[in-house]
Amino acid sequence: MNHSTKSKTVTSDRLRELLAENLPRSSRGVAFGPETSLRQLGITSLGLILVFTRFCQEFNIPMETLETNPVSLHTIGDLLAAGERILEQQNGLPGNGSAHG
What we know:
Structural class: mainly alpha
Distance between the termini: 24 Å
Radius of gyration: 14 Å
Oligomer: single chain
Number of domains: 1
Strand content: under 5%
CATH class: Mainly Alpha
Shape: globular
Largest sheet: none
Mean pLDDT: 78
CATH architecture: Orthogonal Bundle
Low-confidence stretches: 94-101
CATH superfamily: ACP-like
Number of strands: 0
C-alpha cells in the first residue's frame, strides 16, 4: 500500500466530486474522463475558482500559496494533475507554524 498512491486517489476523487457539484444542470450525469474539456462540460472560470477554493479549504491550503492559476486549466486531467501538485507542494513546504512536529 503506497501512501502516495492513496493520497492521489483521495485527491482525484475529491476534485471529481467538487467538479460534479459545480457542473451546470445540462452536464450533470455526463460521464467524463481525463481528456474531457472543462469548457465542454460547461465549467466557467468562476466555476473552476469555486472548485479550487473549496478544495483548498478542505485540505487547509492557503490560496495565496498556489502556483497554479485555475483558469489556465483546460481538461479534467489538467485539474486532477494540478490538485496532486498542490498537495505535493503543500506537503513539501516547511511548517509555516502548523507543523505537527
